[in-house]
Amino acid sequence: MQYARYSSHVIGERLLVVGGVWLLSDGVPGVLMINLSSLCSVEFRLETSSVSWPLVLHSFCSELTDSRDQKLLLIGGGGNCFSFGTHLNLQPVTLDLRAALG
């Protein structure tokens, strides 16, 4: 599936693209990793069982931790709709990138 993406980072020769909008809980957008040399890509699903649903992956900020730790911190995220109310993510989300980048 393709989603609109909202955050990206370049690590070495890899482009990480994070986030998107979805309508069903089983379709949570993940992380797309594109190798800039080979132009091959791999999509990783996010483990969201410990995060209150819905996890909103638009209108958020992402920050890479130091290069040895290889984690991505997602902060914020949310939106407001006059029909459905306001939802804000209740906690920051940390993505461990070691397996994807190793």
Automatic annotation (TrEMBL):
The entry's keywords: S-adenosyl-L-methionine
Biological process per Gene Ontology, one example term: tRNA methylation
InterPro entries named in the record: Kelch-typ_b-propeller (IPR015915)
Recorded superkingdom: Eukaryota
GO MF annotation, one: tRNA methyltransferase activity
Classification via PANTHER family: TRNA WYBUTOSINE-SYNTHESIZING PROTEIN 4
Entry's family note: Belongs to the methyltransferase superfamily. LCMT family.
The name this protein goes by in its record: Uncharacterized protein
Species assigned in the record: Pogonophryne albipinna
Phylogenetic classification of the source organism: Eukaryota, Metazoa, Chordata, Craniata, Vertebrata
